[in-house]
Amino acid sequence: MMGGNMNKMMKQVQKMQQEMAKMQEELANRTVEATAGGGAVKVVASGKQEIVSITLKPEAVDPEDIEMLQDLLLAAVNEALRQSQEMVSKEMGKLTGGLNIPGLF
């Protein structure tokens, strides 16, 4: 009796693993964008939590105030990574039915 249920459960787990692998691949190609300083700094991150691009408007570059540029970059990078993580968690949550399974994402 238990063997049939176990086989069915294992097939469901394998299917979920395949769906999650496909979703991770898709998310790697999706991006999120964050800005700071009213758009003076723009950072794009992928679903792999990698920074894809950083764009600076000329007015963001003031040789007399490097600290401000550093702060804007830091804020935009952290926000882009936060949005990327949120996107991944949300999409993976759809596959796991909201279950937070440690180590999967």
Characterize the structure shown.
It comes from Desulforamulus aeronauticus DSM 10349. Binds to DNA and alters its conformation. May be involved in regulation of gene expression, nucleoid organization and DNA protection. Homodimer. The chain has a domain at 39-96: Ybab, Chain: A (2-Layer Sandwich). A hairpin with a 4-residue loop joins strand 2 and strand 3. The chain is α+β, with helices and mostly antiparallel strands. It is built from 2 helices and 3 strands, in the order H-E-E-E-H. It has a 3-stranded antiparallel beta sheet. The protein has helices at 2-29, 66-96; strands at residues 31-36, 41-46, 51-56. Helix content is 56%, strand content 17%.
Helix content: 55-70%
Strand content: 15-25%
Mind telling me the CATH superfamily name of the domain at 39-96? Nucleoid-associated protein YbaB-like domain
Largest sheet: 3 strands, antiparallel
Provide keyphrases for this structure:
56% helix; 105 residues; Ybab, Chain: A; three-stranded antiparallel beta sheet
Q: What can be said about this structure in brief?
A:
The chain is an alpha+beta fold and 105 residues long. It has helices at residues 2-29, 66-96, and strands at residues 31-36, 41-46, 51-56.
